[in-house]
TrEMBL record:
PROSITE patterns: ATP_P_PHORIBOSYLTR. It is an enzyme of class 2 (transferase). Keywords: Amino-acid biosynthesis, Glycosyltransferase, Histidine biosynthesis, Transferase. Gene3D superfamilies: Periplasmic binding protein-like II. GO terms for molecular function: ATP phosphoribosyltransferase activity. It catalyses: 1-(5-phospho-beta-D-ribosyl)-ATP + diphosphate = 5-phospho-alpha-D-ribose 1-diphosphate + ATP. Pathway: Amino-acid biosynthesis; L-histidine biosynthesis; L-histidine from 5-phospho-alpha-D-ribose 1-diphosphate: step 1/9. It comes from Pararhodobacter aggregans. This is ATP phosphoribosyltransferase.
């Protein structure tokens, strides 16, 4: 059998991942038809490419169905938890940088910090009879962060995309999402709360601690790790 390496199947992370491996003498490419999710690895023996959604790579690593995987640290920490014992971080890859932040409407002039948000959330509940809604797909990370900063009177509402639009749509009062250039926040008249972000993320090469390895796979994995060191 072969070592399986999971790589994002499209977009910014896929191209930069291919470039990162190419710079280390390992050629990855998509094969087959344009929309076909098949790929190949050249330049090293016994390694198979598995093209996956970036958000599914943590689960595949944790299930031991892939030996290595490239995805954002945000997705691994959200899906597997901080300090989990299912994966090792082998190498930060220097791209895919994004901060997970909490943002509120620009026009909330009295809300600049998490303490302000806590006060606004208590006032919101008293006024409206329900808790201030924060839209996010990062439930675990945002809940832990807000708890650690003493923000209590809120509820998370799930948003799997176009999160910055939820306020205009009337389904949330605040958002917690990834930002890199800040353009999406600006375009939607949102401001980031002061202080450290929930998380600073970048694309990272992870290794599964639980993927079974026969002798051939162990040798291929050792050769691959040596090449990447
Ligand atoms: N604007 C951005 N700039 C840089 N990195 C980003 C940005 N948005 C998301 N990312 C990062 O890209 C990674 C993949 O996120 P994304 O949400 O696009 O994946 P996904 O939901 O798995 O995509 P799909 O399921 O459509 O394949 C995450 O680690 C995230 O931090
Ligand atoms: O700070 P910026 O450079 O503007 O990037 C931030 C945006 O990028 C991501 O969305 P994506 O493009 O993946 O679409 P999505 O909203 O459907 O997840 C993220 O969820 C933000 O919406």
């Amino acid at each position: 059998m072969s070592v399986k390496i999971g790589v994002p199947s499209k977009g910014r992370l896929m191209e930069k991942t291919f470039d990162w491996f190419a710079a280390r003498g390992i050629a990855m490419k998509r094969t087959g038809a344009e929309r076909e999710y098949s790929g190949a690895v050249e330049g090293i023996e016994g390694v198979d490419l598995v093209l996956l959604s970036a958000s599914e790579i943590p689960r595949e690593l944790a299930a031991g169905r892939i030996h290595l995987g490239v995805t954002g640290t945000d997705l691994v920490r959200e899906k597997l938890g901080n300090g989990n014992d299912l994966v090792d971080e082998l190498a930060p890859m220097g791209f895919g940088h994004a901060d997970l932040i909490v943002a509120v409407p620009d026009c909330w002039v009295d809300v600049e910090t998490l303490d302000d948000l806590d006060a606004a959330a208590a006032a919101f509940r008293a006024d409206h009879g329900f808790r201030l809604r924060i839209a996010t797909k990062y439930h675990r990370l945002v809940r832990d962060y807000l708890r650690a900063h003493g923000v209590a009177d809120y509820q998370l509402v799930d948003s799997q995309g176009a999160t910055e639009g939820t306020i205009r749509n009337g389904t949330a009062e605040a958002v917690a999402d990834i930002t890199s250039t800040g353009e999406t926040l600006r375009a939607n008249h949102l401001k980031i709360l002061d202080g450290e972000p929930v998380l600073r993320s970048q694309a990272t090469l992870f290794a599964s601690r639980v993927a079974p390895c026969d002798a051939a796979e162990a040798a291929a994995l050792a050769a691959l790790k040596a090449r990447l060191a």
